[in-house]
Amino acid sequence: MLQYVNVTIDGAPVRAEKGTSVLDTAIHYGICIPHLCHIPGIHDMGACRLCIVEHVRNGRSKVTASCTLLVEEGMVIRTNTDRILKMRKNIAELLVARAPNSKAIQDIAVRCGVTEVRYPFRNENCVLCGRCVRICKERAQANALGFIGRGKERHVDHPPGKLMDYCKNCNGCILFCPMSVTPCGGPMKKGEERLCGKCDSQLTADARKMPGVCVWCELGKGFQCSRYLAV
Amino acid sequence: MAKINLDSILEGRRSQPHMLVEVLLDLQDQEGYLPEEALKTVSKELGVPLIDVYRVAHFYKAFSLKPRGKNVITICTGTACHVRGSDLLVNQVRGQLGIEPGETTPDGQITVECVNCVGACALGPIVIHNDVYCKNMTPGTLRRKLDKAAGKKKEAKDA
Questions:
Q1: What domains can be seen in chain A, in order of their start residue?
Q2: Is the peptide bond before B49 cis (omega within 30 degrees of 0)?
Q3: Between A51 and which of A35, A144, A201, A207 could a Cys-Cys bridge form, CB atoms 3.0 to 4.6 Å apart?
């Protein structure tokens, strides 16, 4: 039997299934929490940190990733306080500085209100969101991909030898990779990276007026917002 | 022969994924590195995906995936040892053996590694030669030590 708990998100009392994450609950009730590494139905690992929220307990608030935070009875969550918006903007800025060659990440940066990038562009091909790794492990059950190394050397790789020994050719890793779609202007070469920002106009006035509400913005399609995937 | 030894390591640990690190440590002790074939057997016997075995083997510095030399020379490059001149020791190795830290000499005799601190800062610069700590090293003493380590092999060849 399903058990339910009562949670307050942004002041709205909602009822959530026990065992779901705060992010899933918020998306279900139409509260917009930007996210990147979350895929519905796949275990979360809290890699991108975009979905941070404030968890208020005993008058103190703690900032955590909402995708790995499970709902509890009487929880109080705030998703768009000034503090959170500032931190989220900074995280999005770091992501776009690391990998500007992705429509999904450029869209997220616009969605989180990034207007300039203060960090040097790295132009890397991976943001270590772990979507491919988890799809490979949980949906394809192939275990062909994983994180190798640690710290600066951490990267996604397959065991030595031929990839084809493990890969089931499901293409899930490519489908769910945020780097597989380049920005609208085509791939950026080294030295000419920039913040795209063209899709700013697609953020309708509604989205700005009601920052915490999901208005099904067009930008969600770019990074495969789980609202779109769930439909 | 390697396979028989692997059997003794795996004894009583089969189908227990949580024993992975222990098995890899024993394998590292026995072989000096983690051979690819052995990792495949470990993955099969413990029921751990091969990629997870590699992830763990890459994560911990105690494991090495490349064969290591008979003599492992570890140079401490922590703050105290650096101030007392450990960079001279590293340069001595570069000049004498022609290898960078982390590499092995082509004849498989000496592996040189750098670590950040071994907790004996007062005795620095420290060099660890096969688990033996040598204090107050200078490029001269290191040169003699390396000569000795490489020379042992020459004598064995002559005999």
A1: 4-85+203-230 (3.10.20.740), 87-117+183-198 (no CATH), 131-175 (3.30.70.20)
A2: no
A3: A35
Q: What are A68-104's pLDDT values in tens digits?
A: 999 999 999 999 889 999 999 999 999 999 998 888 8
- Distance in angstroms (rounded) separating the CA atoms of residues A67 and A50: 10
Fold classification of B71-148 is Glutaredoxin (3.40.30)
Distance CA A200, CA B96 (A): 60
Cα B43 to chain centroid, rounded: 23
Cβ–Cβ gap B51/A158 under 8 Å? yes
Q: Measured at the alpha carbon of residue A163, what is the angle toward residues A158 and A169, in degrees to the nearest 5?
A: 110
Closest-CA distance of chain B to residue A225, Å = 29
C-beta atoms of A159 and B52 within 8 A: no
Q: Percent of chain B at pLDDT above 70?
A: 92
Q: Which residues of A touch B49 (CB under 8 A)?
A: 137, 143, 146
Which pLDDT band holds residue B159 (cuts at 50, 70, 90)? very low
A150 to B58: CB separation less than 8 angstroms, yes or no? yes
A41 — pLDDT class (breaks 50, 70, 90): confident
* In chain B, ranges of CATH 3.40.30.10 domains: 71-148
In three-state secondary structure terms, B73 is strand
